Amino acid sequence: MKLARAQVIADLVQGQLATLCVQLQVAGSIRRRRPEVGDLDLVLLPRPGQAEAIKARCRQKCAVVREGEQNCIYRLPASPEQALREPPELGWQIDLFFARPTQRDLLGEEPGNFGSLLLCRTGSKEHNIFLIEHAKALDEGLTWNPYRGVVNQKGQVIASETEEAIFTALKLPFVRPEDRERR
Predict the structure, then answer these.
(1) Which of 22, 32, 136, 153 gets the highest tally of CB atoms within 10 A of its CB?
(2) Residue 74 belongs to what domain range?
(3) Closest to 157 measured CA to CA, from 103, 120, 121, 105
(4) Is 106 contained in some domain?
(5) Greatest pairwise CA separation for the chain in angstroms
(6) What is the pLDDT of residues 42-84, one digit of tens each?
(7) Which residues lie closer than 8 Å to 29 by C-beta, 6 or more apart?
(8) Cβ-contact 96, 72 below 8 angstroms
(9) What is the rounded CA–CA span in Å between residue 79 and residue 100?
(10) Degrees to nearest 5, angle at CA 59 with 53 and 62
(11) Do 87 and 163 belong together in one domain?
(12) What is the pTM assigned to this prediction?
């Protein structure tokens, strides 16, 4: 679908879920401002106890493709009339990626991973591969795990809550989403 149409749909979905989230951001091709968009990617950090409410709200208007703890895939009918057809006509795929908040316990703290998920799910795939390879090439024992963040040799997360922190930890200048295409 064209970017403008995808942005309208993403804004509507965001509007439906925003009150249930601490953070919510459109990712993927829309965030990279690609002229053609295949699906709608959203990274969200639910308010405490609201993950199931988010899934329930999506089920009200969408067909469930997959529901998991870290990500869910739904199909939004292209129009209300198409949703009533047998079988329902497929519309747009909505991918939700659930970030986790900072986790504190007696032994320490694991930072939340919203920034790392947003960076990964914004892509592009080639840019993500570049970041993983760059982390390894630094020769400092760093890795970038999209679901955890930048991790050192001791397994400690050193950057994950914001994209800027991840680029800094990898000793790279920040790259705007629109410039994350690599070939």
Answers:
(1) 32
(2) 3-98
(3) 103
(4) no
(5) 57
(6) 999 999 999 999 999 999 989 899 999 999 999 988 765 554 5
(7) 3, 6, 36, 37, 38, 39, 41, 123
(8) yes
(9) 33
(10) 140
(11) no
(12) 0.90
